[in-house]
Design brief:
By secondary structure, the chain is an alpha/beta fold. The chain has 2 domains: 5-147, ATPase, nucleotide binding domain (Nucleotidyltransferase, domain 5, 2-Layer Sandwich), CATH 3.30.420; 193-369, Nucleotidyltransferase, domain 5, CATH 3.30.420.40. Helices cover 37% and strands 20% of the residues. The chain contains 15 helices and 13 strands. It has helices at 65-76, 107-115, 124-137, 157-160, 166-170, 180-187, 242-249, 256-265, 268-273, 279-284, 288-312, 322-327, 329-338, 348-353, 374-388, and strands at residues 5-11, 15-22, 29-37, 44-49, 52-57, 85-92, 103-104, 143-147, 198-204, 208-214, 217-221, 317-321, 366-369. The strands form 2 sheets. Strands 5-4-3-2-1-6-8-7 form an 8-stranded mixed sheet, with helices on both faces. Strands 11-10-9-12-13 form a 5-stranded mixed sheet, with helices on both faces. Helix 1 crosses helix 3 (124-137) and helix 11 (288-312) crosses helix 13. The chain starts with a strand and ends with a helix. It catalyses: acetate + ATP = acetyl phosphate + ADP. It is found in: Cytoplasm. One of its GO terms (biological process) is acetyl-CoA biosynthetic process.
Length: 389
């Protein structure tokens, strides 16, 4: 039996994104995208192929991942010959200093990923659970891991260092950066810019960050040690005075778990607005708290653009990507307005149309909208890593 099918997983807190690709000599060819969605009942698995979407119910207990996957893949077998699986690729958020590129999953690699779970408690355990479950379901199919931190391994030591005792840096307390698979894809889509163009990419979704890219490499990122850092997100706080943590756990007597839950799940747009984490709903709301949450979000994005421009010594282009960046012109317009002093000039019609270039011809900073594709990077790395072993 020919094995020519690639499967990718991109695990979130409430969804598991799937990608199916054909293994071809030039590059993996996309066949279909899917998602196992736990957000609404009944849970379901959806598959989009050739412009058509199909769905199947998931009745298994969502807490039993193996049972969920068994049911989902029994349904997916009606659309793909899964005996043709050649390799399975996974997105893993944190690779620390251990992984600066993709890795074939072995018992040792699983142990190393597990050891890094303390650095990404919101994401790493879910990825590990999925890897282990898929090893059980498809023990003969090789699996690979693609790491969000790997793209940022090119950040200079000065960028990665905190102003903390030097020994802590050697113990791994440093800036790592995240959303690296998205930024690696964006870096490959900048062929119409000069090779050494100074680009800031803004990955704006429920999790959000920005990255300074020059010569196809990451120079700096808004996220640092954890996925909490940088700009406010849907439910995450973004950068925070560490004195606030000391006060919460000291004077106010909150536990570590209470503070962790607040910072990851109760802050950001949800925390500031007091009622909503989805920027689309906030844009539609007339409540002043909604406007304040959005204003803070866009202010911090613009401020981070300026900081990252400083790391590169200038800026030639700003790229908007991911769910909010690609689909919400109102957010793009607010950010661009705050960057007018840098010479960013928005073309309102192009912005509303979601064109690739949304800046005017006179703008000193090109404003671009480029859809990201993390799954294609996972597929490419899965093939390259499997071919190397």
């Amino acid at each position: 039996m020919t094995r020519d099918l690639i499967l990718t997983f991109n695990t979130g807190s409430s969804t598991i994104k799937l990608g199916f690709y054909a293994l071809e000599a030039a590059a993996p060819r996309p066949l279909a995208s899917g998602v196992i969605d736990f957000r609404d009942e009944p849970f379901e698995v959806r598959l989009t192929r050739e412009g058509k979407t199909f769905s199947g119910p998931i009745t298994a207990d969502p807490g039993d991942l193996t049972a969920v996957l068994n049911q989902a893949f029994a349904w997916l077998a009606g659309h793909f010959n899964l005996s043709r699986l050649a390799v399975i690729g996974h997105r893993v958020v944190h690779g620390g200093d251990v992984f600066t590129g993709p890795a074939r999953i072995t018992d040792q690699v699983i142990a190393q990923i597990d050891a890094l779970a303390r650095l990404a408690p919101l994401h790493q355990p879910q990825s590990l659970a999925l890897i282990r479950a898929m090893r059980g379901l498809y023990p003969d199919v090789p699996q690979t891991a693609s790491f969000d931190t790997a793209f940022h391994a090119t950040n200079p030591p000065l960028i990665r260092r905190f102003a903390l005792p030097r020994a802590l840096y050697d113990q791994g307390i440093k800036r790592y950066g995240f959303h690296g698979l998205s930024y690696r894809y964006i870096a490959g889509q900048l062929g119409d810019l000069a090779t050494d163009a100074k680009v800031v990419a803004a990955h704006l979704g429920s999790g959000a960050s920005l990255c300074a890219i020059r010569g196809g490499k990451s120079i700096d990122s808004s996220m640092g040690f954890s996925t909490l850092d940088g700009i406010p997100m849907a439910t995450r706080s973004g950068a925070l005075d560490p004195g606030v943590i000391l006060h919460l756990m000291g004077e106010m007597g909150q536990s570590l778990k209470q503070v962790e839950t607040m910072l990851y799940r109760e802050s950001g747009l949800l925390g500031v607005s007091g009622f909503e984490a989805d920027s689309r709903e906030l844009m539609a709301s007339t409540r002043p708290e909604a406007a304040e949450a959005l204003d803070l979000f866009c202010l911090r994005i613009a401020g981070e653009v300026a900081r990252l421009a400083t790391s590169m010594g200038g800026i030639d282009a700003l790229v908007f990507t991911a769910g909010i960046g690609e689909h919400q012109p109102g957010i793009r317009a607010r950010v661009a307005a705050r960057l007018a002093w840098l010479g960013a000039e928005l073309d309102p019609d192009a912005n509303e149309a979601g064109s690739r270039r949304i800046s005017t011809a006179a703008s000193r900073v090109q404003l671009l909208v480029i859809p990201t594709d993390e799954e294609s990077i996972i597929a490419q790395e899965a093939v390259s890593e499997e071919a190397a072993t």
